[in-house]
Amino acid sequence: MRYFCNPVNVNYRYQFNLDQRQGGNMKICREAADPSMICFQGRYYIFASMTLGVWVSDDLAHWQNHRLPRELPLYDYAPDVRVMGEWVYFCASRRDESCDRWRTRDILNGPYEKIPGNFPFWDPNLFIDDNGRVYFYWGCSNATPIWGVELDAETMLPKGEKKVLIEGRPFEIGFERSGEDHSLQPLGQEEADAEMRAFLAARGMREDQIPDDRKAMIRGMFSNAPFIEGSWMTKHEGRYYLQYACPGTEYNIYADGVYVSDGPLGPFTLAKNNPYSYHPGGFLPGAGHGSTMQDRQGQWWHTSTMRISVNHNFERRVGLWPAGFDTDGELFCNQRYGDWPMATDGDPWRDPAWMLLSVGKAAFASSCAEGHEPVRATEEDARTWWRAATNSRTEWLQVDLGAVYDVHAIQVNFADDGISVPCPVPMIEGQARHIEERDLQTQWRLEGSVDGASWFVIEDKSYARTDLSHDLVLREDGFKARLIRLTNIAVPYAQSPCLSGLRIFGRGHGAKPDTPSFTAARTGALDMAVAIRKQENTLGYNILFGSAPDKLYHSYMVFSAGEKRIGALVKGCHYFVRVDAFNESGITEGRCISLEKNDL
User: Fold this and answer.
1) Rounded-to-integer distance, Cα 2 and Cα 462, Å
2) Residues in Cβ contact with 353 at an 8 Å cutoff, skipping those fewer than 6 apart
3) pLDDT per residue over 292-350, tens digit each?
4) Measuring CA to CA, which residue among 248, 230, 112, 103 is closest to residue 176?
5) In degrees rounded to 5, what are phi and psi of residue 176?
6) Mean of the per-residue pLDDT values for the chain?
7) Is-contact 478 506, C-beta < 8 A?
8) Is it true that the peptide bond before 111 is cis, omega within 30 degrees of 0?
9) I need a surface site. Which of 272, 398, 484, 486 has the fewest CB within 10 A?
10) 3-class SS of residue 191
11) Which residues contact 106 (CB under 8 A, 6 or more apart)?
């Protein structure tokens, strides 16, 4: 059986960003986002923003990064890729210039044929219907919608006028609200207009001097309106599922929603199961702007963008989850334990094979920088990290699990902390970023011990030629250990090593948690409050909710009891809620309760 653990284990390239808003300061971070995933000639391919290449796999678990030709728009965001017959079609976003397309019969070796475009777009998605007709969807803004149009299959040019398909509705759709945990409330039209006029007046400008599209963008700045973006079309049993991302990539609640229709250009209605891709809790949250694909065995998969957004708003990674359609035709995605090891085959709703052992456990290190203590590597938060005081290879980090466990997987997650190195090449005028083209290395050795006296090597990458910032060590047969130690560490740019998570998975030999006790109440049309009573022998809880007891497709993982507000509800929809508890030995399901409708 093959396993993987999100984020996808690949070389995430560094990017040098020139931030003009902060006096031209350089911000350096890794980035990959907006993935388009396809199956072509029996292999799997993921095209993601700012990677300079494509990720290739034969099994969805192991991926290799291959460079793409320089003539492709590798510095344009949101690459879109679709298979049409024997061809693969490729394009990317360019808001203010006409966007060209390319096609090829050989993704890795080319050649790529250029197809000239005649209009600009952002966040594109090409869709080929069963009858050979071609449709195109695009849009990325908090002021404009998702559009769609039919294209000529030969020229790839529009055959008619574009149609408005999806617009933001944050007063009715809770998961479209911006902010951490949907904390930013949208303003009404009159309030947003007043804010816009005040903004213009402060700059000596009048409303009638501003073009309508520019006014819409300024109004959106003050309205907390969601970004409606990242469309992707899937057809299933004669119905059209138009997926879209919202409300913003820098938030933990970045999600994919879905509308359905009997036609490729609508009219569309909001699906009953929404958001269908939603992963706001856990180690690395976010699950918006992605794609949905069937593998060779017919199993559906969804890939989307995961958020870090510490060194830069666009500091992001890519995740992959099992998906599918239920008997009622509802599109779903299983993200209950969405950044734990999972298998690439079998029931998409099966429980994880191994439990998280490291959360909250004691951690020790050779040294640490102020504010970056060793415990940061075991608190299950990719936005905090242990940082060594020096870049010496004598630095080490150790986790004490508190008891001997059967260990099966370890994910080694490196972070970046204010990297300050010169850009490898001079920035040309007007260039906002440079993607690192050199192949860097991340090296380490991983050891285990039962008693702290005798140590054994689990994995030795002291001389690795790879740069894997979220590397995964798997041992399906398992081994016994209480202590896990990372040593001999070297990271790119000769920086002091930073670990956001030395995450250890396996099985304990104790009892599972007791059945959790909780209450849940709808506190408004779009919100509910779930209060979980603290109990012993529990590491965390998974709050599940959905439209029926057997359709609890949404989840929010938390690591402490108490009250949790969830703001992803849709006005007028009925919900059911269940809380499961987990520890090192397994998962205990809670009871399922019904929430009443609330149309406030």
Assistant:
1) 25
2) 3, 341, 343, 408
3) 999 999 999 999 999 999 999 999 999 999 999 999 999 999 999 999 999 999 899 99
4) 248
5) -85, -10
6) 94
7) yes
8) yes
9) 272
10) helix
11) none
- The C-alpha atoms of residue 70 and residue 111 are separated, in whole angstroms, by 12
Domain assignment present for 362 = yes
Among 403, 502, 387, which residue's Cα sits nearest to residue 445? 502
| Same-domain check for residues 163 and 194 | no
Q: Are 242 and 291 in contact (CB under 8 A)?
A: no
The residue with greater pLDDT, 389 or 203, is: 389
Three-state secondary structure of 368-421: CCCCCCHHHHHCCCCCCCEECCCCCCCCCEEEEEEEEEEEEEEEEEECCCCCCC
Q: Which residue has the higher pLDDT, 147 or 223?
A: 147
- Strand pairing report for 316-325 and 331-333: antiparallel
Which has more pLDDT, 328 or 224? Answer: 328
Residues 500 and 541 in one domain: no
Residue 21 lies in a domain: no
- What is the phi-psi region of residue 50: left when phi exceeds 0, alpha when psi lies from -120 to 50, beta otherwise? left
What residues does 164 pair with on adjacent strands? 147
How far apart are alpha carbons 240 and 186 in whole angstroms? Answer: 29
Asked if residue 108 and residue 174 are part of one domain, the reply reads: yes
Which DSSP string corresponds to 62-88? --EEEE--TTS-TTSSS-EEEEETTEE
* 477 three-state secondary structure: strand
Which CATH number is 582's domain given? Answer: 2.60.40.10
Over the stretch 105-143, which tens digit does the pLDDT of each residue have?
A: 999 999 999 999 989 999 999 999 999 999 999 999 998
Quick check: 294 and 235 in contact, CB under 8 A?
Answer: no
**Phi and psi for 210 in degrees, rounded to 5?**
-110, 130
Per the structure block, which two tokens stand in for 17? 């960003």
Q: Are residues 198 and 145 in the same domain?
A: no
In total, the chain counts a number of residues equal to 600
Burial of 210 (0-12, 13-18, 19+ CB in 10 A): middle
Q: Which two tokens stand for residue 526?
A: 């779009």
Are 247 and 103 members of one domain?
Answer: yes
State the pLDDT at residue 213.
67
Are 169 and 296 in the same domain? yes
By C-alpha distance, which of 374, 357, 373, 512 is closest to 448?
357
Give pLDDT, residue 380: 98
- Please tell me whether residues 57 and 150 are part of one structural domain: yes
**Torsion angle, CA of 533/537/539/542, rounded to 10 degrees?**
-50
Three-state DSSP class for 208? helix
Residue type, 453: A
- Residue-wise pLDDT tens digits, 337-363: 999 999 999 899 999 999 999 999 999
Give domain status of residue 13, yes or no. no
Helix 212-223 vs helix 189-201: crossing angle, to nearest 10: 110
214 in a structural domain: yes
Q: Measure the CA–CA gap between 228 and 53, rounded to whole angstroms.
A: 26
The residue ranking higher by pLDDT, 5 or 208, is 5
Count: domains in the chain: 4
Residue type, 417: D
Which range of residues forms the domain containing residue 563?
A: 518-595
The CATH number of residue 462's host domain is: 2.60.120.260
Q: Cα separation of 324 and 336, whole Å?
A: 15
**CA dist., res. 552 & res. 433, Å (int):** 42
